[in-house]
């Protein structure tokens, strides 16, 4: 099993940490300090984000997307040679707190991270759904889709295996191609606020129907 570090101890990070730990991975949850949120699985290690990035093999970015680039760029040394799974969307919020506009129109957070971290293998995935679907895809009435974007094929195969540990069936995973394809899935976030305003916070994913 892998050692997995998760940067960001909010709802997304803690949700992923719990499911990956239950699947047998050694998980470190990196927050702003080493104490971490209450109520976590005692098998999950708590640490600051620099320690988390340094001491684990695979790192998940679950920090707020509008500040992820600054947060992770300073961890370039710690992230060198590792797989970085980016599940965040970089947006600026509207007045009601829901996503309004993209921070990187014509590009994507994943592309910016790959350019800033050239020695790291960035893979974009799980950013086209509400956070609870990331770890319970079978809970939806219709099969959801987890899109993959990244330049390194080995990294994407590794991430596909981790998605399986989160409950994703192989036929629900769609490899879109290199890291530039992340701009398409990141743009999908713009549909989310309209759905939430009409239907409330109910689990859903932006999926590919065939």
Can you put this structure into words, describing what you see?
- The protein has helices at 11-22, 49-55, 65-73, 76-79, 109-116, 131-134, 153-165, 182-187, 192-199, and strands at residues 3-7, 26-31, 45-48, 58-61, 83-86, 91-93, 99-102, 121-124, 146-150, 173-177.
- It contains 9 helices and 10 strands.
- With 210 residues, it is α/β, with parallel strands linked by helices.
- The longest helix has 13 residues, at 153-165.
- An 8-stranded mixed beta sheet has the order 3-2-1-4-5-8-9-10, sandwiched between helices.
Question: Order of strands in the sheet with the most strands?
Answer: 3-2-1-4-5-8-9-10
The arrangement of helices and strands along the chain is EHEEHEHHEEEHEHEHEHH
Tell me the number of structural domains.
1
Question: In one word, what is the shape?
Answer: globular
Please identify the top-level CATH class.
Alpha Beta
Mean pLDDT: 94
Any low-confidence stretches, pLDDT <50, length ≥5?
none
Largest sheet, in brief, is: 8 strands, mixed
Number of helices: 9
Structure class: alpha/beta
């Amino acid at each position: 099993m892998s050692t997995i570090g998760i940067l960001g101890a909010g709802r997304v990070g803690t949700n992923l940490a719990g499911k990956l730990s239950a699947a047998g991975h050694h998980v470190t949850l990196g927050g702003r300090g080493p104490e971490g949120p209450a109520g976590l699985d005692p098998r999950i290690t708590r640490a600051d984000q620099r320690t988390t990035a340094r001491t684990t093999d695979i790192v998940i970015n679950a920090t707020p997307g509008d500040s992820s680039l600054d947060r992770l760029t300073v961890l370039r040394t710690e992230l060198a040679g590792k797989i970085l799974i980016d599940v965040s969307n970089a947006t600026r919020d509207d007045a009601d707190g829901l996503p309004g506009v993209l921070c990187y129109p014509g590009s994507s957070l994943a592309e910016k991270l790959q350019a800033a971290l050239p020695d790291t293998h960035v893979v974009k995935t799980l950013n086209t759904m509400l956070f609870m679907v990331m770890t319970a895809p079978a809970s939806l009435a219709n099969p959801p889709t987890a899109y993959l974007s990244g330049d390194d094929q080995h990294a994407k195969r590794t991430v596909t295996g981790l998605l399986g540990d989160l409950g994703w069936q192989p036929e629900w995973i769609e490899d879109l191609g290199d890291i530039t394809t992340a701009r398409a899935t990141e743009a999908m976030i713009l549909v989310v606020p309209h759905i939430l305003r009409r239907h409330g916070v109910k689990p859903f994913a932006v999926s590919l129907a065939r």
